[in-house]
From TrEMBL:
The keyword Signal does not apply. GO terms for molecular function: transferase activity. This is Phosphotransferase family protein. Keywords: Transferase. The keyword Transmembrane helix does not apply. Residues 32-256 form the Aminoglycoside phosphotransferase domain. It comes from Parasedimentitalea marina. InterPro entries: ACAD10-like, ACAD10_11_N, Aminoglycoside_PTrfase, Kinase-like_dom_sf.
Amino acid sequence: MSSENTALDLIAVEAYLRAHLPNFAGPLSAVKFETGQSNPTFLLKTPARNYVLRRKPMGVLLKSAHAVEREFRIQKALIASNVPVAGMHLLCEDEDIIGSSFYIMDHVVGRNFVEPTLRGLDGSERMQVFENMGEVLADLHMVDINAVGLSDYGPAGNYFERQLARWTKQYRSTETERIPEMDTLIKELQSTLPLDDGQRSLVHGDYRIDNLIFQNNGTQCLAVLDWELSTIGHPYSDLAGVIMQWQMPQGPEGRGLLGVDREVNNIPSDQEFMDMYCAHRGLPGIESFEFYLAFSFFRMAGILQGVLKRAMSGNASNPERAKKLGQYVPLFARHGLDALSK
């Protein structure tokens, strides 16, 4: 976490919480998390307990982006499900309070693994973390959408067709230079789009190890974070997103497993993780996975392009890191083409 942050109007936040949050008692202080690039996130400290505030960034925003209202809604709906989420307290859509919409949730105390290498854990713990990660993802995809009141959380129809059109449009709107690999990948995805198999579930949209909080002294996931890209869609998009991430370079930017001897380190192979997921869902296997993986690379490239555009426009939460992440756009596009070729 960074030092005390002055970008958040603490006087306004404290006044709002005193009026709307039961049992709230100040004084209030705040520290900004270094993570949470898209929607700035703050740890709110009080003498009695801590909370987390997540807000939209300042400046001109893309339509439908940074939807903290949707993040609040889905986490609140999932609180009674098998999917671990933080407790939701308040959603404030009055932009006059701090300049943007925001929500207040519980501060979940646990450990967060920035990279999937899980350094510091022994081999058995590593495997247990990944097994739990796969089970939580499967549990999310088995949530009864109607039972939790989220039947209208996403449109009907072919999810990948819809997402391909959306992210192509979004990528073009944030394009800062022509990237031939992205142009080719878009055309290839359009021509290899599989038929809709009818699967329709809640999807997280950015499911990876660093968006999970685990027990301090255990391997159980306590909360899934960062639901900005969640919707109703196809479950394989989340699974492919995990596999995509692992093909990235190691380190704080790539956050992948490229070059890691997974067998020696007791980290599941891509297929082993997919098998864990399928076993929990009772599925025999997955066909056409190369398309889902390529699409994941494309969408992440589009997301990173948006991050880069915000940095160049002066609206990024962490400009230096945003520019570094933006440099990965051509690499993700090439990986997408490689996935399709396999």
